[in-house]
Amino acid sequence: MTPEQIIFLIVAVVTLVAGVSVVTSRNLIHSALWLILALFGVAVFYVLLEAGFFAVIQVIVYIGAIAILFIFASMLTRRVMQDTGHQSNKNWWLGALIAFGLLVGITLVLVNWQGFTSLAPVLANQSERLSQLGLALVSPDLYVLPFELASVLLVAAMIGAIFVAGEKKQ
Amino acid sequence: MIPLSWYLIFAAILFCIGLYGVLVRKNAIAILMGIELMLNSVNINLIAFWRYRSPDGIAGQAFAIIVFAVAAAEVAVGLALIISIYRRRSSVVADDMNLMKW
Amino acid sequence: MSTELITWLLPLPPLLAFFMIVLLTNRYKALSHSLAVGAAILSWLGSMVVFFRAIATEHLGTNPFASVLNWLPTGDSWLQIGIRIDPLSAATLFFVAWTVLMIFIYSVGYHNYGQPPGDHDKKGLQPHGAIVADEHGHKHVVPSIEPMYSRFFAFIGLFAFGMYTLVVSDNLLTLFVGWEIMGLCSYLLIGFWYQKPTARAAMIKAFMTTRVGDVFMLLGIAYLYTSVGSLSYSEIFKPETLLRLSETPAIGGFLGLSAAGLMGILLFIGTIGKSAQWPLHVWLPDAMEGPTPVSAMIHAATMVSAGVYMVIRMFPLLQAGSEHGLLTPAMTVMTIIGAFTAIFAATIAVAQNDIKRVLAYSTISQLGYMIAALGIGAYVAAAFHLVTHAFFKALLFLGSGSVIHGVEHGVLHTGEHVDPQDMFNMGGLRKKMPITFWTFLIGGFALSGFPLVTAGFWSKDEILADAFGHGHWVVFIVLALAALLTAFYTMRQITLTFLGEPRTESAHHAKETPWTMTLPLIILAIFAVAIGWAGISESFPVIGGIIPNIVHEFIGGTLAEVPEALPFSIWPLIVSLVVALGGLTLGWLVYRNQKAGAEDPLKIALGPVHSLLKNKYYFDEIYDTILVRPAYWLADNFTNQILDRGIIDGILHFIARVASNVGTIFRNYFDKPVVNGFGDFVGEGVKKVGRNIKVFQTGRVQQYLVMALVLAFGAMFYFVFTFFGQ
Fold it and tell me: Which H helix or E strand runs over C78?
């Protein structure tokens, strides 16, 4: 077992446990905190996949913004949900079943795919990867359109969020 | 020397955990958390495939970047909606929001 | 213009006048009467042209003015109709044209043209007069104009069409058409004042009675057609045809008659109806309910003459099979009925008080004369009397209308409620209505047969002479007696009406009628005097031979062999002078001092017989009991209750019930369960399904997601595993 594999396994276990705790924790704030841990784990995976940029993005965007948003939202909607009662609804077994079924299905599909057990190819010119990504995002014959649209989407989301959640002036 | 399969299996499990959360949790914010887990697993998948299948290409990365952006936007709007609903109905239990009931 | 063309066009103007008045000018009185009188003038003009050309033609009888038209295709030949002007129809055309025109002109004045409309006048009733104020503000009542003025002219126009058609036709079919049109117009015009119940009853009685005659006539026509194959006179009167008809026995050996005899009798029955002979005479006196021009035209001059015209026309058929001047059975029947009717009607006329009734019975009697004359074979005499009678009877009727108008004027003036038609309310009118008096006198003398200067003398004398000369003693005596009575009642009528002193205030205030009424009287009076001179027999002492006997030559020429003129015999002349002058004197003597309110002297003299005469021998009552009441009873009980209501209505009600039940069955067993049920089923089904399915829509997002994922993943994995077959 190489050290990479060991790191992988540990981080995977941590992330998965964190994930399970997100969905089963009774307290919403606890869920949010477990979510932060899961996201961290995913960031580590990005590093393992030699996509360091994404790891950083993950931490900044997901943990720094989204998870904080979750915490704020929990605090803003706290009055009712005071950590009482079940956190899962009635037919949780059906959800579990579906999720498990999906897992089995995906696994079966993947197992029968020939590229399933391939190994990582060697990466060349690592230093230019980031600038390549940046160029790709703004180059007219590459991905500028999705990039711009994404930015429009963000603006719209921002405006929408402000509008929807903003307090109405009396 | 981690085979691709490990990543894929991991991503699948994470996805299913997130799915479980979406289907089962009562609190709307918790549902959104489940969605975040799913989106993250998708990103892992994308990057894994990029790394293992076409590391010289850019498409995988670009796609992943876009997914980030979309996920952020979606969480923002979703939470705004939940807060707005909370203001009106003083509840964030998903089952209570059944105005579209027959 | 050829004579044939003119003849074709003769019936047309009155018909056009009828249609135009009915459709267009009904509201405009002056225009309507102008159309009608104008049409009568046109037809009169045409008739005069035709007549004068006819008498100028030699041997018109053997080649008459004739023209035929192919009308109906019948197998491989045609039913033809046409016109025929031979001497008989020319003479008839002459008097028809004149009398029709005079009566049309008379009608303008009779219906009070120019007078104001009445105050309470209603359509369907006689006009009652209008109140006018003269220059001093005095209000008095004057006669008012007839409310249905234009309608009258339309009807008499249609009637004139019928008569002209009958006269000019060359076949029995169009004759019958004209016959029936006149019957219709008679019905319409007798009941002209249709709101009067007596008029309504009279119009139906007239039509029904003449219908009885017409049915038999139609049988005769049909029989004739089947035997001869044609209805045209030229075909029927061929000597071979007549011989054949007289030698074949009638259908079924009917009473031992020959075919010709049976046909003749059947056709004659039509005349009995139309010319009001006994026993179908009952309609004519009641027909006096119509306006006087109607009585004059239809029931004196033209329609009743049409019956006689028809038998005169069919004389060769009636005479077919006679050996040497002996009478055939058909002729015997005619003689008996004609003579009987002549005396029968004369006796009734003696006891009548209504001025028009006297004339009605007089007409019946004179028609009897003509038929008796024809029955004994006096062809020319019968035709001659037909012509003269038309003129003087029309004159008498128009005169009576003038008298009635004059007395009515007095009635309106004084406001008395007396019957203006009762002669016992008149008297002394010769001073008040001189023109009417003198013309009426001339007509009355003509009717009585006043010697030499009146037409009636010449024609009646000829009939008596024929009867005497051919040895028909009974007929001679009967007709002579009838002539006596005729003179008596005529003078009775004249004396009561015109001579003596007025018996009522209304008669005192009577006034002469306007020129539209007196001018026709004068013209007809001229004819009543002069026309007789065209028929003076050549062997008459002194004056015979000065003018040739045009009538005998001309009309006699219609027959295949001109009948020979009888040598003169003094006896019939003496007899006719005695009866005529004697009757007139007797009438004057009895009635000259008739006072107002006094009894009729005849009543005192005859006692109960008088009441028998006055009630017309109770024939109306007899017919009522024997025929009319049973008919009504049958109609009501059998036809109405049993046939109509029971059977026909029963069938209809049954059908209706069946249909209704079928409909109900359809409704309850098919429509409701199946059709409605299906519709309801679909609707209810959809609702039920919806109600059961809607539970899926909980509004809860997680459940939607579960459902979606189950399906989505299921489908996805299915496809993945089948199509990428591992």
Answer: strand C77-85
